[in-house]
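Issue 218. Parser rejects a valid record. Input:
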Amino acid sequence: GVGHAGGESLFRVLEALRARGYVLSLVSRIREVERAQLPAVEAVCKTVITVPHHRDMAGPPFLAVVHSYLLFRRALCRALRELQPDLLHVETTQTAAIALGLPRPPASFRTQDVNWFLVEQERDRAQKGRRLGLTVLRLLVKRIEIDLLRRHQMVVAISEGDRRLLAPYIPESQLLMVPLAPSIQGSHGQADLPDSGPIILFVGAMGRRYNQEGVRWFLDAVWPLISAAEPEAKFVVVGSHPPEWLLLRGDDEHVIVKGFVEDLAPWYRSARVFVSPLLTAGGLLQKIMDAMAMEVPVVATSVCNHGIAATPGVHLLTADRDVDFAGAVIELLRNEEKRQRLAREAHRFVLTHYDFEAAMDRWDGALRRLLDGSKRESTG
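Output the parser choked on:
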């Protein structure tokens, strides 16, 4: 596999497109730590062009970001000129912005997040003094984002929640939903954990602000309630780039911070409950999908269910207040029958609603119709 979560999901998309007869070329920014994964990508892509990610570049952070994206635009321009692709597919809003003005073939765009929805969530939680600024920012981001999306002949939403957000602005014939699918591969490894006590698990890249915000809220407001009721419970955080404040909160006994791990499957298997306490979320949270596929019962904030669209109380438990979130976790720790029932229903839900091959077949058909239409226009 190639990384976790979004990286693993995108790699599966590349494999599936290649299996359906597409010849792929990839232009991407890359972290130095990701170079070990390049051979796997090069095995499915005819051409791979990379430029340095800003986090690995010297100089002031803002200038590093600008420099990285300028290099990316230059590489993309060269690839479009030299490779002459029949179709351009774009991932992320930043990439769509970087590609503005470049001569290009018909293009598709796949959402990772609807950014104005993220700003909206922050605005709704903000103190009164910040709300006006965030309201203006939301309007600006929404206008820019919709304009970028409309420059593509096809827009692919990764969740039903995102599709509903985009539907008023994108013609139905150009809007397709191709959801992510579970990315965890089975393994027989064991998690490096103490033997005693139920495990409450969170998985997420801890360099990301929204993950930090959610874990901090959980540790400050929710975990003390759980720990008081279940003294043997352990909260385990798995994810790359844990910040210093989180490492300091870990005690290797009740709060365990593991950082990046190669194989996530043993950690999911070890968990009694999976938590997703994010206060701001969008897209389709891969970590929840993986937990449900691994039959780990999930407790999440309501916004974490935005993309998945599971039924609260049937496929997962949702709670937004600290006392309610803690109560849901404690109930699952103590009620094995409910825990197992929720896990079974979650697993069934994922199998029923997130068939990756069926979704890729739909995308394949839409891409071929787009290409056929483009060829007819060019020969007409």
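Fixed in the parser; the record now loads. The chain has two domains: 6-183+355-379, 199-353.
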